[in-house]
Amino acid sequence: MAAVAGSGTDIDHPNDHLVEDFLACDIPEILRGELVDGEILITPFGGGIRTIARLVSQIIRGSAAEWDFLGRAGLIAPSAPGRPRNHVIPDGVFVRCDADLPDGENPWNPIEDVAATMLVEFTRARPEQAREAKRYSYARAAVPFYLLVDQHRRKTILFSGPRGGDYRRADWAPFGKPLPLPEPFGIDLDTSDFA
Prior knowledge:
Layout: H1 16-24, E1 31-36, E2 39-44, H2 49-62, E3 67-70, E4 74-77, E5 86-88, E6 92-96, E7 108-110, H3 111-114, E8 118-122, H4 127-140, E9 145-150, E10 155-163, E11 166-174, E12 179-181, E13 187-189
Parallel strand pairs: 4-7, 8-9
Antiparallel strand pairs: 1-2, 3-6, 4-5, 6-8, 9-10, 10-11, 12-13
């Protein structure tokens, strides 16, 4: 994912230079480059391939609803007040199969254009980014569910009910215990592979 200046991203903030600098970075595709609350973050992708594959498989096979899974989708999302819009790459995005997804070459799409039902993140070197900054950003964007696999605290948390810049509800299970995912998923997520 080489981010390119002039990629169609709206730049309309006093810190436009930060967004422009971020978009001009040439970040190797094996790394995740994000702009979160005014800070440029370069990190490896979280979770293991096997863990993500098992999570996706459980949801797609176990849910009565039909889902598409987007990996490494570049999303433009709301940030903290006074900061440029976040540019994030969740570990995964679940959208309904009938969702009208953006089509084209732009590596960054407004989160509202993706119609995400649930975003998935695994904690990594800076876990507070996933626990707080990204959680608030996704809630501000009114994404119905945010699933956080917290590898540092060894638990999985499902945030739901976005309102007022945060989620009203957080259900969690330690690794190894099932975490119920409500409708439209309607499954108990087996977390034993997350450890």
